[in-house]
Amino acid sequence: MTIRVLIxxxxxxxxQGFTVLLNAEPGIEVVGQAVDGLDAVxxxxxxxxxxxxxxxxxxxxxGIEATRRITDPPGATVKVLVxxxxxxxxxxxxxxxxxxxxxxxxxxxxxxxxxxVRVVAAGDALLAPSITKRVIAEFSRLTDAPRxxxxxxxGGLTERETEVLSLIAQGMSNAEIAGRLxxxxxxxxxxxxxxxxxxxxxxxxxxxxxxxxxxxxxxxGY
Length: 222
Description:
Layout: E1 3-8, H1 12-23, E2 28-34, H2 37-47, E3 51-55, H3 63-71, E4 79-84, H4 90-98, E5 102-105, H5 110-122, H6 129-142, H7 150-154, H8 159-169, H9 174-181, H10 185-199, H11 204-213
Parallel strand pairs: 1-2, 1-3, 3-4, 4-5
Helix pairs in contact: 2-3, 3-4, 4-6, 6-11, 8-10, 8-11, 9-10
């Protein structure tokens, strides 16, 4: 199936450049462009894309609030991939918390851009684990939000599900988790699905943020 993409950025050159790059990729189609957050929210309702490439800093309505409005409605399936100039942009943390499935640097190559869109659309792996894991860890360290006691948040998970959640937060794919725990990949997928349902989470990125916020996984050195 073709992945339908909406590009939201206030810079015309960025929108046009990404449009050209993605339309050249098999199985990906850019169905629209948005010039700011309000426009992005409206275009999502109109065009029903699978993935939104969302700039953070935009006029009218910023990317963080636009992401929240797009992903909050019950049954929302669209994935948001945040675009940023810096890999440790402070706003990235808030975007992940608002519902973004990952982030991508604006200087990414065409191959990296296409792969990011496919990964986020599939929802079965964190985007750029080595980078996203570091950002989530930093977000967890910097946030002032009080930690909810671990036993109160993961008490409904089995020991195996808790173990799988920990490995998700470490940036592992289903195949890598299966190899680590000596399980079939389909079994891991089942565990992941049950984790998301039990914790009321949207996707693996939310699961990773959750694992750091609850203290199940702690950033290295903390």
